[in-house]
Amino acid sequence: MALDPTQLTQLEGLCEAFYGGDVNQQKQAHEVLLPLICNLSCLPQLQALLAQSSNPHALMFAATALSKLFTSSWAQIPDNQKEETKTFLLNYLYKCGPDMLRTAPYLVGHFVRLLCQIVKYGWLDTLNPRPTITDQVSQFLNASTSHWIVGLIIFTSLTQEMQYSSGVYFAKYRRTALLFRDTALPTIFQVAMKTLRQIHLGSISITDYQEEYKLLKQVLQLIHNCLAYDFMGTVPDETSEEQNTIMIPHSWAVLREDYIPIIFFDIYAKCCSMSENMPDCATLCLQCLILVSSIRRSFFSTQAERTRSLAALMSGTAGIIQTRMGLDNENCFHELCRLLGKLNTANQLTELASTDAFNLWIEQVYSFTIKALEEWSVLPNSKHYLLGLWSHMVIPLLYQGNRSPSNLESFIYNVTITFIQSRIKIAEAISQGRDIEDPLESEVMRTEQLDVLAQLSRCRYHDVADYIVKLFEQVTSNVQNGVISQDCFISQITWCVYMHGALIGGHTIKLRRPLLPGSSGGNQNSIPDKSQEVSHHVLNGKLAQLVFRLLQQTDGLSDTPESLELAYLYFLEQFRKVCLGDYAKQFIQPDSEEATLASILGVESDDDVLSLIIGKIGRNLQNKCKMESVIKRSLNLFHELAAGISIVQYTDRTTHLIVSGRLLLRNEQIQKIMQNHSAPEFAFLNVPRYGKYRTSYYFILAKLLFLDLKEEENNHSSTISFEQFMQPQVKTFDLLWDEIVLKNNLNRISGFTGTPLSSNNTSLASAGYHPSQFRQPLIGLARDLRGICLACVGPESYNLLFNWLVNKPKQQGHSRVHLFTWAADQFWDDTDVMVALLKFMAEFVDNKSQRICFDRTSPNGILLFKEVSSLICTYGSRILSKPTASFQNIYKEKYKGIAVTLAMLCHALSGGYTNFGVFEVYNDQALESALRLACQMCLVIPEHDLQSYLKSLKSYYEFLELATRCFISTFITTLEPQHLAVICYSIESGLCAVDNVVLLACCATLDHLVSFIFTTIEKENIIFPSGVGISTNLNSETDAMENDNITSLRNGTNGISPEGKAIYRFLIEHPNSLVRIMQLMFNLITTGDLSTWTFSRSLLGMILLYRKEYELIQHQLVNQQVEDKRAKYQLLFKDLLKGTDGTLSTVSKDAFTRNLHYFAHMIRSNTL
């Protein structure tokens, strides 16, 4: 199709307006041009625009639009049109590419990207593609320099395009990428290395500087792409690139040559010279060297080859540092730091030290590191690689002892001290208002730096600790003498506290392992003598003493900065790990009482040491409620103290279980907190936005309480009984129930058995009370109880809470737990109240760890479910009656509550503590009502919203699985056919979900549903009209053909059960619901990378139900293949039902599962 001049001019004008016009012009152009991108019939028009126009904007639009069309509609485009477009692009780039490269280089990228996408999708379609693209592009390499550059751009884009990523079609893309690796990529890499070698030897003569720059940059980028290719198909995590190993194919022998690093270093030097000045190319050289240094060990034939390559890398980097060549450029500086770090992580210290270049290299790296740390304001993120290099050398140094390289210990020590000094200088600069990123404000950066310091300080620990102690005292002295400002003091002392914690935390690695005291004496098998062990302990005590002294001073102030408070908590976290409890006593055994940790800190016993930590936690919870981070970290520390369990091997080689919670129970301050846990002094409990912290607080206290009660069984006196502990909650219940409900004309609740209070026209408002005044007590109560329930890990602790809540089991509606149904009636439209209440009930009915274990004669399981049903009916009926348009934030106000409600019902249904048959026998509607309301909740969530909030609405699919597994009859008869079709559509969408939990739930739901439908049809001999396509009562395809013309239902619907009638209506009114799912499953099986086992159970049932549709799907999939593959595909489909007997018996399902696995394997592996 050719465009006439008028059409061409019009399209070019629209493209000009689209990319460069004002807002109105862009909007008008967008409306006209958008159909060209979305409509496949416009493909010839776009191709004509690409061929005829010379307007840059028109060309860019045409290339972009064609790229989107080819990507979205590849299967619908004829093969000849694909090949013609590819040929046209190659010819166009050969003819016009050099001019475009000079005038509009960005256009080259659009054309090349389109070409590479066509090549990629062509490889996906073909089983054994020939790498003709390399032959076609080779014509570019034999022409002018500009053609050469264009050819390299094509190869560069192709290596990037062929990389695969995770997703539904991961397996198919992976096969193509690995095929590209084995066929075309070696040729491309050879071309790139040959070109680079020619540039290095000077055999390429280019007079134009710009062309030389573009050629060099392009060939370096191509080599980088080739080396960075994911050769193993593992899709590595890019966030941890420094740990990656490059799995170069063994056939790429050129990389074994020791001159390869030299080439890159020489070109780097050339690019950094004053005459050339190509910083981009210099950066690419270093990036390529990083990849070269990451090549797998087994790639080298001998260790000598690898050592020569390593020596060349070390000599080259030492030369760059020595001459400071290119290091004024930030990118070059950063990449050199990465390269140095990679050399260290990819090689052991012994390997580095075995090279002749090591002494020069380590000296240059040391001087480079010291200078970099002294220039602390320049590229701070790059210093991380240098610090990592030195920290990784500490452990090998500790083990090698006298065999370690000379001066390495002193180098590490000096780097450590310089790093500490740089943090103090940063603190001073920030206090002066300089625009510098503060590491203390970034938790990730702060943690990285402290971890490095903890590792570095293990070398010459005494010297480093002494230095930090002196630094701490100096900073304190400076502020007292007015040398530094208060702001500077706070910033510097915060760093000091953090560094004290890092040093002590470095001892969490086995304390029996030697720490260098002041020099690297001893050998790798040496055990430090007792005096050294004591000295470390005493030194840690001195470090802690300074911090605790400062902590006591600042706790009396009202304006202590949050950063300093967080530093205290970090220190306490590290201090707890090393210096507390039986664990520390086994390794820290001082000679005298004066050397104990308690004596150094100025207290009497280890329990008093623990009191220092507990006291700080308590004061934070009481006085720091405006600092959310401090509250959060304080509770985390409290939880670590309460829940810490360690398996420790003592010095006598015996193994002991250390439970730190027992240490807390003996502490007087903990006992006071347990007895006064809701005291007004704990101000954070009254902050509404701290609800989750309130739950954590009571979880910790309840964990200690139940541990204490368990200890009481072993003849230990308990601190407090459960009833005493719950007294504050009893008072809240009295306020909300006895004092409000019963005393204000709501005594009719005594006969309340599940009907909402409002049905009696009674409410708090009519009684003279405003509900809002009870809002916070309700939320707080629910939060408290949820935290306590979370701590119930066994039947003993759970029964205590159950008996407290269900305190009047024989008086229905009078137990404490029924308060939540009353609250749901009053506060159903208050999201904060309802989510808190529902989350507690969801936790309360969750039988995790089999903690809910009632006696066989106990009705507690039934009572518990009836409360759940009552709550669901009360809340559900009201939230469903509220018009959708009245919600301002529909997720928060509606879907969140529905999600928790469904989760609560799932926990109750799957708990195994309720005999649900009782409800039907005694005609109790609790179960049926709960299931009906839950189904209605599922149906009010639109499909778009369900997928948008899938993470929060997983309980939707979990409920469907449970309902169809345990209550399929009620489920089928409750839902109208159109509603069941909606459920099937949501299952269809769930099968494409990334979340594996959702996928498994959908497959299980389908299995239950299809099995029930199939079994019911067979059992009741239901016959469907021929147009529906259901194959019933048939055990063979012959029977199916013979009975195909039956057009009436046997005896109408007489004699058929309600379930059978519901199934008949659904399949008559929505015959395609299950067929669509079957089609989707086959698409996912043939093109995706999903487990066939998850699909097999439900898929067999649908095949047996819809034999004709299955044959149609089979026919379509076979016809999509090339001629020589169709017979093999046909045979695979024929064998798919081999071993099945036309039923859904276990034997039949197992046989189909095996057949389906083989079927998918053959198709996905392209072995046909």
TrEMBL record:
One of its GO terms (cellular component) is cytoplasm. GO terms for molecular function: nuclear export signal receptor activity; small GTPase binding. Residues 29-95 form the Importin N-terminal domain. Gene3D superfamilies: Leucine-rich Repeat Variant. The keyword Transport applies. SUPFAM superfamilies: ARM repeat. One of its GO terms (biological process) is protein export from nucleus. Keywords: Cytoplasm, Nucleus, Protein transport, Transport. Belongs to the exportin family. This is Importin-beta N-terminal domain-containing protein.
